[in-house]
Amino acid sequence: MTSLSKTLQLALLTSLLMLSGCVKYSFRGALPSSIKTSAIPFFEDKARVKWVGLQEKLSEQVATAFLEDNTLQVITDEESSDLLLSGTIVDVRTQAVSISQDEDVEQEQIVVVVKIECMNQALGKPLWNGQLRDFAEVDGDAGTDEIEAAIDIAIEKLVSEIVDRTIAAW
Question: What is the pTM of this model?
Answer without folding.
Answer: 0.79
